[in-house]
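Researcher: We're reviewing a set of sequences before deciding which ones to prioritize for further study. For each one, I'd like a predicted 3D structure that I can look through quickly. This is C-X-C chemokine receptor type 2. If possible, include the structure in token form so it fits the rest of the review sheet.
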Amino acid sequence: MANSVVISDLDFLDYYLDGNYSDVYGTFDPNSIAAAASPCGINVTPDVFKYLVAFIYGLTCLLSLVGNSLVVLVIAYNKGNRSATDVYLLNLAIADLLFALSLPFWAVDRVHEWIFGTPMCKILSLLREVNFYSGILLLACISVDRYLAIVYATRAVTQKRSWVKFVCVGIWLFSFLFSLPGIIFRVAYLPSHFYKCVCYENIEGNQTPEIRVKLRILPQTFGFFLPLIIMLFCYGVTVHRLYQTNNSQRKKAMKVILAVMLVFLVCWLPYNISLLLDTLMRSGAIGETCDLRNSIDAALSGTEILGFAHSCINPIIYAFIGQKFRNNFLKILVTRGIISKEALTRFRRGSSFSSTSGITSTTL
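Model: Here's the predicted structure for C-X-C chemokine receptor type 2, in token form for your review sheet.
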């Protein structure tokens, strides 16, 4: 196979011993002779599970492409009425769209093997990791924006488009930088006497486990846990202040934002906890046993699926909870002549919808 690195059977045995090779940072270490000599048993993934995961990836891809395209359409259509939150949500939808394009490739990888070579391995891994880091950073920025707008009522500051654009550019750059370690070392591995090819990091040398742990610490700390702390603080104070007032419009908007944040945490926090446990195990902070290693590998594999599924969920939240999103989408359909104005009026009758986004957004 072109653009592939051949590794020995002894090295490839470690792939089986460590289990899950397809997670973002992973536990598979193809250069670990010690791991290959481990007495741990081999865990073989049932074919039915492989096809189930591939089906989930395919369904997620379809829902993500449709849903996030609608989000981009609604926000782009309301160009002159966008808030800072809208700009962040637009970038979040774009990140999910880009990631969704990679899901069919990962589905094939799960069922069969990696057949796309090293260049695609690097590109698709980049899309996956940039999606994750940009997601958490954008949600952290939304939490800060809501904190300033509601707690300090600094609408003039939070609505400045130039600052928002610079922040978004910075988020994309930081997401790319956080993703670099994995991308630099990722290649397509082809075992010398085995038909399965994998897309994984190629880190050579005796200090491979230590290097892999170091490559995890910085991105995980600054790309997940620090933004998480910022989000929890900002939303904690904001919700406390918000429910001391009687502004129902703000409360409805905050319900959507909080739902977006909570879903992100439900989807990605389990994976990051599993990754943290794996990092502690590999650094020697906690003792490594066969049962622990197999449990962590299974956790990484399962929680990764949950994280991948996140890319299609935000549009569903907007559609079911975000009243403004539904109304603005229907306005687009009226403008294009797809539905009548009377249908829009009937839909909006009895609702508290307001055309002024004010301190909320045209999406929420």
